[in-house]
Structure formats: C-alpha cells, structure tokens
Write a structure and sequence with these properties.
about 180 residues, mainly beta, Lipocalin, eight-stranded antiparallel β-barrel, 10 strands, signal, TTHA0802/YceI-like_sf
Length: about 180
C-alpha cells in the first residue's frame, strides 16, 4: 500500500475513533477539473476518478481536515489518444505516479461560508505547500465545497521535454473542484 493511502486510512480511522464526522463524498454530484490554455484556447477537462475524505463540522470549521486523491490517468481531454498521451511519462507519468494528492494542514474560517485552506499538494512526486480560498454551504442536508487552486504545471514536471514549451500548453493550470458530501 502506498504511503499516502496508508496515511489517509490511518487519519480516517483516528478521526472516526475520536467521534469526528467524516463526510461521504457524493461522486455523482462532485467534480474535479483542470483548466488550462492550449495554443491560447481555454480547455476544461474533468478527472473521472477521485476520492475525498472530508472531516467537517460547520460549528467548528477550524478543526476541519481534508484529503483528496485524484487518479492522474483519468483526465478526460475528450479524445482517447490525447487521454493516453497525458498519462505518459512526459505528462503525468501515471504508471509511476498514479495519484495526485492534497492533504490539508490547516483550515481556517474566512467569514460566513468561506474558508482558507492550506496543505500539501503532491503531483508526480513533487510536493508543494499551497493555500486557496474555499466556499462552503449546506444544500439538501449535505455540505457543498467549491474552490479553485491555481498551479504552475512545470513546477510539478507536467509536460517534460518538448512539452516544456508554454506556447503550446500554458504553464498556468487551475484545478477546480465542486465536492458534495454528507453523512
């Protein structure tokens, strides 16, 4: 079992034993996408496989924790050949790094319905500290989390060799997510 998966499972087990409320993600209503520019044309592509473990209580948002794992080979660019290409070594190297992950290190209230999230983002073996705003609301008895995390793809070696040329695919990528979760 990979270290990140083991850490996630241990964290979930500890949270459950401490009486915390780990929310179950509604995969049918949740999305994670990558938005970038290819030849200066905006492209938004979904990741088809991901999971999120969110420990959140609206009355104690500063105690919240979150872990998100994304299957890197599940990025859907709308064409089978392009999907195979992005899984190759020059891009995500999904054979060696099948998951990208985010693990929160702090979640702080930033006003009504707003949180500031900090944590460790790991893509293709590269780990970086990130901070981003998150909105949260209750809808139909579930918590709805919306956010966007801008990254530089080259900082994670996404697009090696000839693909380092940012005139073809821009360095700026925004990871957008909409996660619906409840008991």
């Amino acid at each position: 079992m990979k270290k990140t998966a083991l850490v996630s499972l241990l964290g979930l087990a500890l949270a459950a034993s401490a009486g915390a409320a780990v929310l179950k993600t509604d995969a049918a209503k949740s999305t994670v996408t990558a938005t970038f520019k290819q030849m200066n044309v905006p492209v938004e592509s979904p990741f088809k496989k991901f999971d999120a473990a969110i420990d959140y209580n609206p009355s104690a948002p500063d105690a919240a924790k979150a872990t998100v794992n994304v299957d890197t080979a599940s990025l859907d660019l709308g064409e089978a050949d392009m999907n195979k290409e992005v899984a190759k070594k020059e891009w995500f190297n999904s054979a060696q790094f099948p998951k990208a992950s985010f693990v929160s290190t702090g979640i702080k209230s930033a006003g009504a319905g707003k949180l500031t999230v900090t944590g460790k983002l790991t893509i293709k073996g590269k780990v970086a500290d990130v901070t981003f705003p998150l909105s949260v609301k209750t809808e139909g008895g579930k918590q709805v989390f919306d956010g966007a995390l801008p990254i530089k793809r080259l900082a994670y070696n996404i697009g090696e060799g000839e693909w380092k040329d940012t005139s073809m695919v821009a360095d700026e990528v925004t990871i957008k997510f909409h996660v619906v979760a409840g008991q």
